[in-house]
Design a protein that fits this description.
- The complex is a heterodimer of chains A (about 210) and B (about 400).
- Chain A is α+β, with helices and mostly antiparallel strands.
- Helix content of chain A is about 35%, strand content about 25%.
- The longest helix of chain A is centred in the middle third of the chain and has 21 residues.
- The two termini of chain A are about 30 Å apart.
- Chain B is α/β, with parallel strands linked by helices.
- A seven-stranded mixed sheet of chain B has the order 2-8-7-6-5-3-4, with helices on both faces. A four-stranded antiparallel sheet of chain B has the order 9-10-13-12. Chain B has a two-stranded parallel ribbon with strand order 1-11.
- The longest helix of chain B has 22 residues.
- Chain B is globular and about 80 Å long.
- Classes of the chains: A alpha+beta (about 210), B alpha/beta (about 400).
- Chains A and B meet through strand 2, strand 3 and helix 2 of A and helix 9, helix 11 and helix 13 of B.
């Protein structure tokens, strides 16, 4: 398992790193308990809705720092809509790839960028606070990477069923008993969903 | 020996001493024979092997015929644990949550085979709970096993107290010890602690990779684990390299000619390292215990607000090799189980760095390492949201 030269360059000499004074919006995702946390700060031109300046802080490993560096490069100067469209796949490609077990780090950086933009849009009346629904759960599951192959669990068809009612989340998974990543994936699902106050209980069923 | 970088991960493996290489060379070429009877080639190897066994046996206070060569510490652990379990057929085993993976994976395997296992908990310094040990002993307990010096934080288990508890039981409980991190790093005579079986390994003490030994107290009945033709040893059957055994014996000789001196050299380096770290880096703490209860070569610290994989990679670029307990650096994306079991939190485990010194490390190497680490810590903290948040709160 090796990092590409691009990952190493961005890790050793990250772009746009540092705390921003008086940002127009910011967001923090991840948690120290999960081993990584990213904060993204934005300055947005009110008229053009373009990202004038962007910076980040990262508590995490090399791939975490490198993806935050490249994704902030990619977002700089873009309109909010363009920046929103940047995915973890784009960031990963720009880094010439990541080891499968490290792909989840790129998701966190992309996710934090999206959250910062969303916070800006909500604060400026550009959008409503979204309602929590089954769609929200699905969106969150798409951010969970199966570390063995470096793809998300929804694309890999590992999620068989998602249900949500009265705060109860029910997820049926398609992972065999011998899969050593079951526990890891279950933990990730909890971490991604428990941050929503609407979620009272999560039940994950494995075959 | 030509030094390539500063290698501070000697608990995993260590550079081979030049004297060891020299001692091995004849056995690769002109003296390559396996042991045998009545013919000069085989007899000369018998003689050489007796000498090697004697050197190693003397180092741990064993009889020569109690030393069995294996292809490493893990093989030795497997042969002992499975061998004792095979002989017992069923029953109860005691080990602890902070044991070396060799012991834990064998315990898990035996559980599946119908044995019962009690995993003792450990205190904040990784010492096993002796009260729990006393309470765990059952009439069918046939095996207690422990990792003498912990492979993560270096804590040496209270062997005398363990011995006392095991001997007070009203039936025989075998005592298996993994001495992978303890051998050559502390005075250790098997007879002092009633140890029945003990694994040791050559490459952790500047010997060659691929050879170890299992001490089996005379009279211990063990089931056969490895079946096959007997070449060098009756427990690990099949061929074993005589050259590697020669190297192993030489490595042992180099350390045990002056064990006290070897230990104090390692301890001086470790103490110096910890003193420098404390002085140069803020928000740092030692994991495990201080002083004589710690293996002489191990310093394990947690550096707050930053993550270990990033630290180890930046040190690597400076030519320094260390290890971390960070989940990000592990294949299973899990924080280190020993650190978690002794009550450290995720951040302390993610920010943990393990240094293990060897006899070729100098104080200048340590100065350079600590200077680099101080710089790296500062750099990563500037990037860290946790550090920035803490600094904001301080304001």
């Amino acid at each position: 398992m090796q990092y590409t030269q691009k990952v190493l360059d961005h890790f050793m000499h990250p772009h746009n790193v540092g705390k921003m004074e008086n940002p127009d919006a910011s967001a923090t995702e991840g948690s120290p308990a999960c081993g990584d946390q990213v904060t993204v700060y934005l300055k947005v031109d009110e008229k053009s809705k373009k990202i004038e300046d962007i910076s980040f802080l990262s508590y995490g490993c090399a791939s975490n720092i490198a993806t935050a560096s490249i994704i902030t490069d990619m977002a700089k100067g873009k309109s909010l809509d363009e920046a929103k469209a940047i995915t973890w796949r784009d960031a990963m490609e720009a880094l010439d790839g990541l080891p499968p077990v490290k792909v989840h780090c790129s998701v966190l950086a992309a996710d934090t960028l999206k959250s910062a933009i969303s916070n800006y849009e909500i604060a400026h009346g550009l959008k409503e606070v979204p309602n929590f629904s089954k769609e929200t759960i699905l969106e969150e599951l798409k951010k969970i990477i199966y570390p063995k192959v470096g793809e998300d669990i929804v694309s890999l068809k590992m999620v068989k069923y998602v249900g949500f009612s009265d705060g109860e989340v029910l997820i049926d998974m398609n992972m065999p008993a011998f899969d050593s990543w079951r526990e890891n994936v279950a933990e990730e699902i909890h971490e991604h969903l428990e941050k929503y106050p609407e979620v009272k209980n999560i039940q994950i069923n494995f075959p | 020996m030509k030094k390539t970088g500063i290698y501070l991960d000697n608990c995993v493996t260590s550079p081979m001493a030049e004297e060891v290489l020299e001692a091995m060379l004849p056995y690769f070429s002109e003296r390559f024979w396996f042991p045998g009877s009545f013919i000069s080639t085989g007899e000369s190897t018998n003689e050489a092997l007796s000498g090697f066994s004697h050197t190693i046996a003397a180092a741990i206070g064993a009889r020569d015929d109690e030393i069995h060569f294996t292809s490493g510490g893990t093989l030795a652990n497997n042969i002992a644990i499975k061998g004792l379990a095979n002989a017992a057929k069923r029953g109860h085993i005691i080990c602890s949550v902070v044991d070396y993976p060799d012991l834990l994976t064998n315990a898990a395997y035996l559980e599946k085979q119908g044995f019962e296992v009690t995993y003792l908990s450990a205190d904040s310094k990784a010492r096993i709970d002796l009260q729990e040990l006393k309470a765990a002993i059952r009439p069918d307990t046939f095996l207690f096993m422990t990792t003498i010096a912990n492979h993560v934080v270096g804590t040496i288990q209270p062997l005398a107290e363990i011995h006392e508890i095991l001997s007070a039981a009203d039936h025989k409980i075998f005592f298996h010890a993994d001495a992978g991190q303890a051998f050559g790093k502390m005075p250790l005579k098997v007879g002092d602690y009633g140890i029945d079986t003990m694994s040791i390994s050559a490459h952790k003490i500047h010997g060659p990779q691929g050879i170890g030994a299992l001490y089996v107290r005379k009279g211990t009945s063990m089931g056969q684990v490895i079946h096959g033709v007997r070449r060098v040893d009756g427990l690990q059957t099949g061929g074993l390299s005589i050259a590697l055994i020669a190297g192993f014996a030489k490595a042992v000789e180099l350390i045990f000619n002056d064990l006290a001196g070897s230990i104090s050299q390692l301890r001086e380096l470790s103490d110096y390292l910890w003193a420098r770290l404390k002085k140069k880096i803020s928000y740092i703490e030692l994991n495990g215990t201080e002083g004589e209860e710690r293996a002489a070569h191990n310093i394990n610290v947690s550096i707050d607000y930053i993550e270990g994989e990033a630290i180890t990679m930046m040190l690597d670029m400076k030519g320094i090799t260390v290890a971390t307990g960070s989940a990000c650096a592990s294949q299973g994306l899990k924080p280190n189980y020993v650190l978690m079991a002794i009550g450290k939190n995720h951040v302390q485990s993610h920010g943990s760095i393990k240094f293990t010194v060897n006899r070729y490390i100098t104080k200048e190497d340590i100065d350079y390492t600590v200077d680099c680490l101080a710089e790296i810590t500062e750099e990563l903290r500037q990037r860290s949201p946790l550090y920035n948040a803490m600094k904001n709160q301080e304001k």
